[in-house]
Design goal:
By secondary structure, this protein is mainly α. It is built from 15 helices and six strands.
Length: about 575
């Protein structure tokens, strides 16, 4: 894997060239770029609300487990505590593994070769192995530069600081607070990008996006390993006991439900914010997604709880069968999220768990048919599970059972309603039934969007033959000194009118020797931590905001086809 920055212009918008802008709004191939995004106060409030949801979910579960222990209900205590500790340990190990790689000294390990040529700096070249330690900024200096030679005292202070960081991170993860640390770090980096000048603002904003991506992935894994089973367990106990629910189990159930809905919406928002080829998700759309998932997961979990309160064995068989079918459905869709085959298989298994409870898009393209099919299957399953439970009740005297059936149906209907509100009114690409927004993400562009100046236009499948008269006319024109068109000329495609193109923008372009992953997958520089460290080092040392350009497979095929045709 190699990343290269050579000063060539590249488009920051979507297209076959696989170009990813360094930050949303950087200069690219869609007219004059709007200023880069800024960290706003509502972003800070969103993170604080995420912390509140995290603490409320964990605190209510632990409080409920302690209550079960004091009441002598050891089975309920064991299951509740198991669904709290086991997922938390898995997530903390993964988070600490990421920390070890990010803060490890790569001096003795081979890294990707990186070369940079900045056209603004008159062709000055810098090379580095990996990224850590390649470029540093002096303490308090606004501009980055090469790291000067350090004395033994400063080296000793650095080693002490490094040891303190390792001890602090070890303690944080032992206390099961890895996600809290990452939330606070993302909040700190976002505020730094707001307070600092333009030179350092983009660097802190990039790091904030990376940290937000990490914590959103960790929270997604944790909620569906902890909150989802906890929700079904507590609902099953409430239904089995009957009567008015106790306050503490109701609080735990509500916190788990809100945590699931919030995590899904937050994951989608961070994913869209990280990709410059997609429009960002507004907070109105995020709230609509929270309500959508809140009511659909509530109906789904309540149907599970009703059925499990009567048919415990058959409920386990149903869950395993549903997970196997959904995992196979995801695998046959050939997802491309991870960097290795085994990581992809594990990811597909986790998505299979998510599909037990709610819809989760994992394949690029229009997902309307797949989403409709999934919700039809879920509707039939909810009706069947609730119907089997209701068939064991006394129809004539049990008014409580009829209320539960109505709650399941109305909750699912409300979830579908908010899903329609999101897609019809609040989707980033525009209303589903109205005109769709253009692919260019720069809304303040002063010129129409077109391919970048150095983009390769697709050649025709075949070239027209030249008649003898045309050859004679061309020879006569050449002898007369008249200008002639070039020999190899590609006809412009649609639209027939000339498309205004932006002038070639000089600046650093980081070229990544990998094909770009398609949405809804994360870009490789968010998944591959070695590549992330390299990009951060180049971005920190560059006087201008670099753009990322992934390898385009289609371009190579087009060039070979052109040469063969000629």
């Amino acid at each position: 894997m190699a990343a290269k920055s050579d000063g060539a212009a590249a488009s920051a918008g979507p297209g076959p060239e696989g170009v990813a802008g360094g930050a949303r709004g950087s200069a690219g191939g869609c007219g004059e770029a709007a200023p880069g995004p800024r960290y706003e106060l509502r972003d800070c409030c969103w993170v604080l609300c995420a912390l509140l949801v995290f603490f409320s979910d964990g605190a209510t579960d632990l409080w409920l487990a302690a209550s079960y222990y004091l009441q002598g209900q050891h089975t309920c205590f064991s299951l509740t505590l198991l669904f709290v500790l086991l997922p938390s340990l898995v997530v903390q190990l993964l988070s600490f593994r990421w920390f070890v790689y990010d803060y490890s000294d790569p001096a003795g390990s081979p890294g990707p070769a990186v070369s940079t040529k900045d056209s603004v700096a008159a062709g000055a070249a810098i090379s580095t192995k990996d990224s850590a330690g390649a470029f540093r900024t002096k303490e308090g200096s606004p501009e980055p530069g090469p790291q000067p030679a350090h004395s033994s005292a400063s080296a000793y202070r650095r080693r002490c600081c490094r040891l303190c960081i390792w001890l602090l991170q070890t303690l944080v993860h032992l206390l099961q607070l890895g996600q809290v640390w990452r939330y606070l770090r993302a909040l700190y980096l976002g505020l730094q990008s707001r307070w600092r000048g333009e030179r350092l603002r983009r660097h802190f904003y990039w790091r904030m996006l990376f940290e937000s991506a990490d914590v959103s992935m960790l929270r997604l894994l944790e909620t569906f390993l902890r909150s989802a089973p906890q929700l079904v367990l507590q609902l099953s106990l409430l239904v089995h006991r009957g009567g008015a629910p106790d306050l503490l189990p109701a609080l735990s159930t509500s916190a788990s439900l809100v945590s699931l809905a919030w995590t899904l919406a937050s994951y989608q928002k961070v994913l869209r914010d990280s990709r410059d080829d997609k429009r960002p998700l507004s907070y109105k759309g995020a709230v609509a997604q929270v309500l959508w998932h809140l009511f659909t997961i509530a109906a789904r979990s309540l149907a599970f709880a009703l059925f499990a309160s009567v048919y415990k064995l058959y409920f386990g068989i149903f869950i395993v069968a549903h997970w196997c079918v959904m995992t196979f459905w995801v695998i046959q869709g050939e997802t491309d999220f991870c960097m290795s085959k085994w990581e992809e298989i594990i990811y597909n298994m986790v998505v299979g768990i998510i599909y037990i409870f709610c819809w989760f898009n994992v394949k690029e393209g229009r997902s309307r048919r797949r989403m409709t099919l999934y919700h039809c299957i879920v509707l039939l399953e909810n009706a069947a599970l609730t119907g089997f439970w209701y068939s064991n009740r006394n129809f004539s005297t049990d008014f409580y059972s009829l209320i539960m059936v109505c709650v399941v149906a109305s909750s699912f209907a409300l979830g579908i309603f908010f899903m329609c509100v999101y897609y019809c009114l609040l989707h980033p690409n525009g209303p589903m039934l109205g005109p769709q927004a253009p692919g260019c993400i720069f809304r303040k562009a002063s010129e129409p969007c077109g391919p970048p100046a150095d983009a390769i236009t697709s050649p025709p499948r075949s070239l027209p033959r030249t008649t003898g008269a045309e050859r004679d006319g061309a020879s006569a024109g050449e002898r007369a000194g008249t200008p002639t068109p070039p020999v190899f000329q590609v006809r412009p495609g649609l639209p027939p009118t000339p498309v205004a193109r932006t002038s070639r923008t000089e600046g650093p372009v980081i070229r990544i020797d990998l094909p770009r992953k398609k949405y809804p997958a994360w870009d490789a520089h968010f998944i591959d931590r070695r590549l992330r460290k390299t990009i951060l080092a180049l971005e920190y040392s560059s006087p201008a905001t670099p753009r990322l350009q992934y390898r385009s497979v289609g371009t190579t095929q087009e060039l070979l086809e052109y040469e063969t045709t000629v």
